[in-house]
Amino acid sequence: MKKILIFINLILCQISLLAQGTPQERYIQKWAPTAVREMYRSGVPASITLAQGILESRYGLSALASEGNNHFGIKCHKDWKGKSMRYDDDAKGECFRVYDSADESFQDHSDFLRYRDRYKFLFELKTTDYKGWAYGLKKAGYATDPNYPAKLIKYIEDYKLYEYDTMTSEESERLSEAESQKEGSTSVGSETSKGGKSTVTKKAKSRKELRREKKARKVRKKYRSAEESVPDVIPASPLSLEEPKRIDKSGREVFSFSLTREAYSRNGVPFITSVEGETYSSIAQSYHLYLKELLRFNDLTRSEELLPGTVVYLQAKKNQSEKGLDKYIVGEDDESLRDICQRFAVKMSSVVKMNGFSADYEPREGDTIILRGKKVKKR
Predict the structure, then answer these.
(1) Please, are residues 159 and 24 in contact by the beta-carbon 8 Å criterion?
(2) CA distance to 40, 42, 174, 192, per residue, from 289 (Å)
(3) Measured CA distances, 98 to 73, 102, 109 (Å)
(4) Which of 133, 143, 150 is nearest to 72 (CA)?
(5) How far apart, in whole angstroms, are the C-alpha atoms of residue 213 and residue 208?
(6) Which residues fall within 8 angstroms of residue 199, CB to CB, at 6 or more apart?
């Protein structure tokens, strides 16, 4: 703990000095906490995020950054449905994304890299391998400038941005808190001015919570009765998921996703049970996952109301069930195919293929569903 405090104080001293320096240094001082947070959320090295931000946005002073909050020069592309602006780049009047805030730009930059196939190989690199990331971005086509990797590396080494790549989640939180305290006075005033409105919202929400609790009691009763009748259908063993760490050859800790909440394992897949007030979005944020990832792990295409006591998987489910649980006979309960797949920690797409189900299949009482075995012809 003492070492962590010393490291944080050194970083904060460095940031304090940066604030008095060049535009590049002030940019780093302002956006370093965000870059580290994005590293833990997405896996993109903080040094790369900061170096790209400095280069692409001209340390926040470019027209794209100042007018459109676009710090990374990300163009519209076919899948963009948000606001946009025209700007002369490689060609005249190209379409660039516009964001409501710079924070959104940082988040979209991470998403842009993580969810495009051409950048997938980058996430096989260590977050401390900033040179590999720099050359990889050029190889994947992020920029046309042949000197792009060298420019990123120079910024990273000149300003020691690589130090942010080895920050732990605790150090990151302390860094963010220190930065927030500097801006605290303005935010306190705005909260006070909205006090009356928040009270009304809370009262309106309480009536909705009563309806949710009533529905939740029914769900718990349903699952308790199902588990009591088939006690070994859902084997779950306690599993404490501590923050995973990998050590590179130099002995330094390498970033990995942090999972610190006590969880359970079913069919080798870690899961938690939701508590009152949680949402899929809040759980995704707690476990440094993208919301769309968490939804995919749980066979959902969009977020829905999360009732207390709901099983939420934190990793992808298996293609088949555990040995000895090869089949399941549908009982009287009105279970969907997804409900069954959640009970056994099996991907719904795999169960559909194994059983040859059509896209609109709905389980009926007495149906036998294969959970482990060979594929069958489509029904």
Answers:
(1) yes
(2) 9, 7, 21, 33
(3) 10, 10, 12
(4) 143
(5) 9
(6) none
3-state class (DSSP) for residue 252: coil
What residue ranges do the domains of the chain occupy? 2-68+103-179, 206-313, 327-370
CA distance 152 to 374: 51
d(CA 45, CA 331): 49
* Residue type, position 176, single letter: S
Residue 300 sits at φ, ψ, to 5 deg, of -120, 145
Single-letter code of the amino acid located at 239: L
- Tokens of residue 216, six digits: 């939740």
Q: Which CATH class is domain 2-68+103-179?
A: mainly alpha
Burial, 330: exposed, middle or buried (Cβ in 10 Å; 0-12, 13-18, 19+)? middle
Q: What is the DSSP letter of 143?
A: -
| DSSP-derived 3-state class of residue 243 | coil
| 3-state secondary structure at position 57 | helix
Contact (Cβ atoms closer than 8 angstroms) between residue 369 and residue 341: no
Answer for the pair 256, 244: CB distance below 8 angstroms, yes or no: yes
Structure tokens at 141: 């086509």
CA atoms of 364 and 341, how far apart (whole Å):
15
Query: What is the sign, positive or negative, of the torsion defined by CA atoms of 290, 293, 295, 298?
Result: negative
In tens digits, the chain (379 residues) has pLDDT values of 455 445 555 555 555 544 457 888 999 989 998 898 888 778 899 999 999 999 999 999 999 999 999 999 999 988 788 899 998 776 788 899 999 999 999 989 998 888 788 888 898 888 899 999 999 999 999 988 999 999 999 999 999 999 999 886 567 667 666 666 655 544 434 333 334 333 333 334 444 455 445 445 544 444 444 333 333 333 443 333 333 333 343 434 343 344 445 677 888 888 888 888 889 988 888 777 888 889 999 999 888 888 888 999 988 899 998 888 888 888 866 788 999 999 999 999 999 999 999 888 989 888 899 998 765 555 4
Give the span between the Cα atoms of 213 and 206, in whole angstroms: 10
CA distance 74 to 95: 9
Q: Which two tokens stand for residue 161?
A: 């941005």
CA 41 distance to own-chain centroid:
5
The hierarchical CATH code for the domain 327-370 is 3.10.350
